[in-house]
Amino acid sequence: MAQYTRVSGSVGLITLQSPPVNALSAAVRQGIVDLMQRALSEPEVKSVVICGQNGIFCGGADIKEFGGQMSGPPLIPMIHAIEAASKPVVAAIEGIALGGGLELALGCHYRIAHSKARVGLPEVTLGLLPGAGGSQRLPRLIGVPAALDLITTGRHVTAAEALKFGLVDQITDHNTVNVAVKFAQRVADQPLDARRISTHPCLCPSDVAVLFEEVMQRVRRTARGAIAPIACVQAVRAAATLPYNQGMERERELMATLFTSGQARALQYFFFAQRAVGRWSMPSGARWDTSKPRPVHKAAVIGLGTMGRGITVALAQAGFSVVAVETQEKQLMEAKQAISGMLERGAKRRGVAPALDKINYGRNIQSVADVDLVIEAVFEDMALKKKVFQQLSAVCKPSTFLCSNTSGLDIDQLACQTRNPELVVGMHFFAPAHVMKLLEVVYGPKSSPLAVATAMQLGKKIGKVSVAVGNCRGFVGNRMLKPYLEQALFLLEEGATPEFVDQVLEEFGFAMGVFRMSDLSGLDVGWKVRLADGLAMPDPTMGQPTRLRQGRRYSPLGDLLCEQGRFGQKTGRGWYQYDKPGSQVAKPDPWLHSFLDEYRARHALVAHRIDHQEVLERCLYSMINEGFRILEDGIAAGPEDIDVIYVFGYSWPRHRGGPMFYAATVGLNKVLERLEHYYQAHPDVPSLQPCHLLRKLVASGSPPIQKWREVIKKVRSQL
Ligand SMILES: CC(C)(COP(=O)(O)OP(=O)(O)OC[C@H]1O[C@@H](n2cnc3c(N)ncnc32)[C@H](O)[C@@H]1OP(=O)(O)O)[C@@H](O)C(=O)NCCC(=O)NCCSC(=O)C[C@@H](O)CCCCCCCCCCCCC(=O)O
Ligand SMILES: NC(=O)c1ccc[n+]([C@@H]2O[C@H](COP(=O)([O-])OP(=O)(O)OC[C@H]3O[C@@H](n4cnc5c(N)ncnc54)[C@H](O)[C@@H]3O)[C@@H](O)[C@H]2O)c1
């Protein structure tokens, strides 16, 4: 909807009204079309101002409409009509002008923005391009290089930056609508021809062809298979090389291709999934909207290794006072230096002062007595963690929340060491903790809704996307990683190379294949866990590792590499070789290939030809199958939780929506059929056995992903 008022006698004020972000729904578009006609027909009205209610100009097209039959007046002619109007139209931009919202403003003759407003064309993040003339008007207004930057990244810019670009005409600290109305009165009689951006020539640098070539190469390199960034470059190239009308035609063609692509559907699903995870619930029925968090002012981090340092930086940067405790003197010194460096670099990037004074360092756990929340990040060793939780429980205020950054140990066992187990949750960060967006908030059987709500809110405050999950070995992310890693090893045993498996996964869109990723994070991490589990022990009778452990197929390949001191990048050798320890350039290693040949010969394994399809299906479907088990067990409340965890924590390509959305795209019956096929071929691999929920979903006609929760509820109620 939109509302019309006449202000100061001669200005028609059109206010977009569609909470929460004044998206351009059919009703809003209809309102704008009708009210523009009214303003143009009233002789007293000399100029028009368009603004949005509640201090928000417009969040763009209504993304919810994209999924269905679109109705109402189309956006492109609506914006053309505004630009063609005989009376000046001024956009009063408060809050945000994004996507179609900015395109609407670009159709206006003038743009006045509040100093705190942000503008941008984020369509690329939804698998689209600015398809209401944005790709053609923006380069004409601010030049090709700046337009390419904004359109291919989708980044939001501040009002000050927008003014520098010439994207807005004026910024104000006062009431933007009042300023815009006065401005509209001043320009009421001025000629409009030069203000119609579509009539401007496109501002191109002399080496524009080289520029497009360079940008296209960069975009292809970083897109990981996403098509929208490439279409964005093509659309801007059309603006630079074609007359406006032909450019608009090209924009329309490209948009039509994107609009109906699976990638746009995946990215739009993911947009809503990110928001859905904030509406968490627990099996007890506790929910985000009925559970109040308690404020946290002062926090502590215990253990300043890789993770503790990043967590300390994340907390300090968000303004929290932090007590940082490390028992080892040498580690403490190194940590202080590393944390200060990270804070200084971060502050320089953001143009603010480094938050060095937010942190108090110490070696004694007693120094955390008065904090509101503790995050433990000591070694992944249950005995040590239990001891630390006992100490914390004795030292801290009774109301202090005690959280663990464990990668997968039982939160309940830690809670049992404390006086107030209801205040214990997992806060599982991802490395590097000050950079990675994901936080798994893990509730155990005793965790209270208060503790979950507090950890979720803290996550939000430090800029994380937080997902509440249940307590089980590996939680959601690492639990699903296990069958994925396991399949990758089995594929090596059966004839594949690490290079081939990685290539297939990287072509699929992962930032790194499974073996390059293992080399980066360190092969010793998983080895220690397998040793602790009694899995990585060599067979004592044979002096040889066997391939069956605890009743199921087991690949000792990773253990054998670790026994040789091949821990990955840090030792300069792993699944690949590196020029020196710490180097990041992975090179195929002939030693590894001979080692694999010998290993296969020793175990009478005949290498067979493994193709792309087999790598993808075995690695991904086994992981997806575990995802269904996680849903069935109630560890994740819905598929969105899993998808958000995988995109933000494990570099799953966003344009494929996440593993569960991908399963829905491939077709659940196909996933089931292929899992059945592989399970038949490998009956000693339980992770390939299709789980009950997957079968149930297929039996229910493979409903769309938005309906899975209903089936999950039924399956769980029958357990
Ligand atoms: C706006 C934000 C920055 C606000 O952030 P904040 O953190 O404050 O709040 P939330 O993110 O939690 O959002 C609150 C609430 O609002 C919902 N929401 C936000 N934005 C939208 C939106 N644009 N539409 C619908 N709903 C929205 C959000 O989901 C939350 O609700 P929930 O219930 O989920 O909690 C932030 O929200 C944000 O960044 N929003 C997105 C901004 C954006 O990306 N805008 C661009 C939209 S796409 C667009 O504008 C396209 C245009 O270029 C025009 C395209 C023209 C279309 C023409 C169609 C041609 C098709 C051709 C096909 C031909 C086919 C054929 O030939 O057959
Ligand atoms: N490294 C990762 O990628 C990663 C990712 C997510 C979670 N985690 C988890 O985070 C935790 C820490 O991992 P990390 O990689 O940072 O380990 P790390 O080995 O780098 O650091 C652990 C630090 O804890 C210190 N420490 C040990 N006992 C202590 C005590 N009683 N009091 C104070 N400090 C103590 C050690 O001196 C060391 O500096 C583990 O539980 C791990 O599973 C790690």
From TrEMBL:
Pathway: Lipid metabolism; fatty acid beta-oxidation. InterPro entries: 3-OHacyl-CoA_DH_CS, 3-OHacyl-CoA_DH_NAD-bd, 3HC_DH_C, 6-PGluconate_DH-like_C_sf, ClpP/crotonase-like_dom_sf, Enoyl-CoA_hyd/isom_CS, Enoyl-CoA_hydra/iso, NAD(P)-bd_dom_sf. GO terms for molecular function: (3S)-3-hydroxyacyl-CoA dehydrogenase (NAD+) activity; delta(3)-delta(2)-enoyl-CoA isomerase activity; enoyl-CoA hydratase activity; NAD+ binding. Transmembrane segments: none annotated. One of its GO terms (biological process) is fatty acid beta-oxidation. It catalyses: (3S)-hydroxydecanoyl-CoA = (2E)-decenoyl-CoA + H2O; (3Z)-hexenoyl-CoA = (2E)-hexenoyl-CoA; (3E,5Z)-tetradecadienoyl-CoA = (2E,5Z)-tetradecadienoyl-CoA; (2E)-hexadecenedioyl-CoA + H2O = (3S)-hydroxyhexadecanedioyl-CoA. Coiled coil: none annotated. Residues 298-471 form the 3-hydroxyacyl-CoA dehydrogenase NAD binding domain. GO terms for cellular component: peroxisome. Keywords: Fatty acid metabolism, Isomerase, Lipid metabolism, Lyase, Multifunctional enzyme, NAD, Oxidoreductase, Peroxisome. Its main location: other. The keyword NAD applies. PROSITE patterns: 3HCDH, ENOYL_COA_HYDRATASE. It holds the Pfam family 3HCDH_N. It comes from the Eukaryota. The keyword ATP-binding does not apply. Residues 474-578, 615-702 form the 3-hydroxyacyl-CoA dehydrogenase C-terminal domain. Monomer. Belongs to the enoyl-CoA hydratase/isomerase family. In the C-terminal section; belongs to the 3-hydroxyacyl-CoA dehydrogenase family. This is Peroxisomal bifunctional enzyme. It comes from Pundamilia nyererei. The lineage of its organism: Eukaryota, Metazoa, Chordata, Craniata, Vertebrata. The gene is ehhadh.
